[in-house]
Design goal:
229 residues, 4-stranded parallel sheet, 4 strands, globular
């Protein structure tokens, strides 16, 4: 299990400019590199290629140009221009037009959440289950973002029990994570949207993902060892 000290360690690594440079030099060099499993690439062209591959499997996509918590308006303006370029490239390519925006990347200064290490997993799961029922039975095209098989099955059960068809909600998952579940859900008739992160700021994102939950480290290990999920 990762304790708060371990999480802090991963976040510290994420801020290291030296490690970022080394990772940028080697982490994306080969299609089989460790980061390629979870990051589509550093350019919008690579992200669109990944999006086409995902869409060919019957899934939908959302594009995320990595980078957040900018410290200057100049950087925020640059990120805004970059995102406009991403949108134009998506339109030209014909892939699904759905993007993920981080307001901190576009200049909004937000304080760090002080309670992040206090929400227990059992409490989070219970709250998630309550929100699942509310969203599926009364929401307007809700998105259910999870890789937890138990939560996915709960969502399917709630929908089935309340006569909610699979066209009235969608599952959302991260690029490179639990591809087996993604495929299973599509074959079962559900909509699945894959979050496709890309960009030169991939290393901090990758480290933060590892630090968020112990399961993320296991996903990476399984990915390196050739797991199909």
């Amino acid at each position: 299990m990762l304790d708060s000290a371990s999480k802090a360690f991963f976040h510290l690594i994420a801020q290291s400019q030296t490690l970022k440079k080394v990772a940028s030099r080697y982490g994306m060099r080969e299609p089989s590199s460790f980061a390629r499993r979870f990051i589509a690439g550093e350019t919008v062209a690579e992200a669109i290629e990944a999006a086409r591959t995902v869409e060919s499997r019957g899934l939908t996509v959302t594009m995320d140009l990595l980078g957040e918590s900018v410290t200057s308006l100049a950087t925020a303006d640059a990120a805004t221009r970059d995102y406009i370029g991403v949108i134009e490239a998506m339109i030209a390519s014909g892939v699904g037009r759905n993007i993920s925006l981080k307001l901190t990347q576009l200049g909004l200064d937000v304080d760090k959440a002080s309670a992040i290490d206090n929400p227990k997993k059992a409490d989070v799961d219970a709250a998630y289950a309550r929100m699942l029922k509310t969203l599926i039975t009364g929401g307007n095209d809700p998105a259910i973002a999870t890789h937890d098989p138990a939560m996915i099955e709960l969502a399917r059960t709630i929908a089935r029990e309340h006569g909610v068809g699979p066209d009235r909600f969608e599952f959302q998952m991260l690029y490179g994570v639990r591809r087996d579940l993604q495929t299973m859900l599509v074959k079962a008739g559900y909509r699945v949207r894959v979050y496709i992160p890309f960009g030169r700021e991939w290393f901090p994102y990758f480290m933060r993902r590892l630090g968020e939950r112990p399961a993320n480290v296991l996903f990476v290990i399984r990915g390196i060892l050739g797991d199909s999920g």
